[in-house]
Amino acid sequence: MSGLLHVAMAPKPGLSLDQFHEWYNNEHGPTRLRMPHMFQNGLRYRATDGLDPEFLAVYDVTDMSLLETPTYTELRERRSPREAETIGQVDVNRRFLDLVGSQQSESFVPAEQLTDDDAAGRVLIQVEVSLRDNAPDAEAETVRWYAEEHIPMLAKVPGWLRSRIFRTPAKIEGQVSTPVTVITLHEFAQDNALEGPEHRASMNTPWRTKVFASYIAEKHRRAYEILYIFGPGPRELDSLAKLPRSKSFTAMDKKWATTAGECPHISAFVTTADGLTIPYRLEGSTAANAPTVAFSNSLLTSLHMWDPLVEILKAARPDLRILRYDTRGRHAVPEPPVPATLDMLADDIATLIAALRIPKLHALIGVSMGGATTLKFALKYPHLTERFIACDFNVASSDANTQAWKDRIAMAESPEQGISALAKVTVPRWFHEYTMTDRTNIANWMTEMVAENSVQGFRYGCQALWGYNMREEMKGCTVPGLFVVGDQDGKGALVKAMDGFKGSLGKEGAELKIVEKAGHLPMCEDPEGFWKAIEGFL
Prior knowledge:
Elements: E1 3-11, H1 17-33, E2 43-47, E3 55-61, H2 70-77, H3 81-87, E4 90-104, H4 116-119, E5 123-131, H5 138-154, E6 160-168, E7 181-188, H6 197-202, H7 206-214, E8 216-229, H8 238-241, E9 249-250, E10 257-259, E11 265-271, E12 277-284, E13 292-296, H9 307-316, E14 321-325, H10 342-355, E15 363-367, H11 369-380, E16 388-391, H12 399-413, H13 418-430, H14 433-438, H15 440-451, H16 455-461, E17 481-486, H17 493-501, E18 511-515, H18 522-525, H19 527-534
């Protein structure tokens, strides 16, 4: 039986609302949304009727029996110290509700399928009726009245979206001695005619009078407005920014952390459809609807390759939210291992932004394999980004390149050489000779980053660059793009290659910007020069 996890909460005096919201939005809710087999969604509401408890969270549950399994019960038994401390300062009324019936308008879309802006203002009316103990048919007759008269009449109220009937205690809890309570949740658009003539008519019928006189002992009505919609990825920077640095948090498994204070950021992860963990970092503007720029790194590097550029970007464009992630293959590959493809890499970005409830990127920026991934993403998901910047990449691979990757795999897997040896020969090939001689700190930083890559991840990750060709596909691109390249990438060969295919992007082609005295990673070698190249387009 499907149903609802229904949690009403009232923070006690002394607990700051920022701390309460940051904990709930970044830790508590996303932890549950990472179990889609159990929780279909997670929504928070705030009371608009001035009554307590002020906050309500509801989670649609696929099968109520799952709430008795260790997968769920251990969430409560293994709370983090921060969660235990915070929840101890909150009055919590947690209930399991069995779904009895549901009716919805033809235009109804679940809130979790809307953008935050489109879902804003949605109204939830909760009506709770306790049934008389001495009326054996009370539950059946009350539910029948709701289903056959009351809800069909509510459906005539302008702005009505959906009504659902629940009962508690849930079957998994047993009947015990608690009287049955029927709870109805009625959802309305922000613009609605609650308290209008259609609504008043639904409250004044002979059948309703009979039901209340014969079967209902008590009635309580609450009114709420939607506050927050969970995704499996923590993303709430606003409350985090309002907390002192001392309220930063690291999960017990070390897989995610939040940094509070003036420059808040979240380091966490999402899980792909094939079970791979993708780490990400979110920072920049704390506004929930801030335009987001995402970055796709090159093979063998991490999300930290963008560190110098991100510092420039945060200073120059404080209006932007910044999202970085580690490409699959950086740390691991799925089990059983399968070669990566550009389609997979594009899908990973779509999975990531969906988990963070980002409806559309302001821009996607990628370099090398990340540049090819960026173009593939723009081609496959044109509705998910407004523009893209693809750097130091080729639109198609060659047999010679494929053989080169096989040779590099052999080096990385060799007991005599290994990934460290690969790093030492890779970085000089990437960087301008000036960087290798006069900016050794940059070269050393990158060499260490490459050497930390998973060897198995490299073996399967680099295969995304084997046997691909987007020459024809890019002609139909509808997303504006900018190409950027270091002047000495491949000793100038890549400049010629990108100049050759820049005119094939969509109907108008793409501009090619060249960063002087830079090689394969111009944003690492000359972040200021790279910023000047992309600033106008971004």
